[in-house]
Amino acid sequence: VEDDRLVLNLANAQFYTNDSIRALNNYRSLQTSSNREIASLANQQLGAMQFRSKKYKEALQYYKSSLKSNSGNEEARYNYELLKKLIKEQEEQEQENKDQQDQNQEDQEQENQDQQKQDQQNQDQQNKNQDEQENQDQQEKEEQKQEEQQENQDEQKQQEEQNPEDQEEQEEKKEDSKPNPIDEEKLKEMK
Q1: Which of 13, 69, 89, 151 is a good FRET partner for 105, with 20 to 30 A between their CA atoms?
Q2: For helices 56-69 and 74-177, what crossing angle results, to 10°?
C-alpha cells in the first residue's frame, strides 16, 4: 500500500510536468490497487488526462470508476457531474447543428425545386411565345398570299374588262384593213 502511494505521487509529478505517457502507465497500474482511495485517485487522474485530450466520454468513464472505488471522492463526483453536463450540452449542440444543417439542406432543395419550376415555367412561356409568333408569322404570310391572289384576280378581271374594248378595236382594225368591196370594184373599173 505504501508503494502505491509512492507510485501515485510519482504519477502526479509526471502529470504536472507533462510526462503524459509515464503518468498514464503509472495511473493505470494503480487502478486495481487494494487501497480504494488510491484506486479512486488514479481513475480520477486518468479522467483528467482524457479530459485534457478532449476524450470526454472516456474521461466520464474514469470518473465513474473513481466514484465506484470511493463514493466519498467529492472532486471526482464534481468532475463527473460537470463533465456529464458538458457532454449533454455538446450533444444538444451537435443535434442543433445537425438539425440546422438538415433544415438548410431542405431549404436548399426546396429552393432548387422552386428554381427548376420557375425555369420550366419560363421555358414553357418562351415556347408558347415562340409558337404564337410562328403562328402569327404564318397567318401574316397567309394573309399576304391571299392579298396577292386577290390583287392578281383583280388585275385579271380588269384586263378582262379592258379586253372587250381591245377586242372591238382589234375587230375595227381588222375591218379597216379589209379592202372595202366597193373600193375594189372601183379599182377594177379604173383599170
Answers
A1: 89
A2: 160
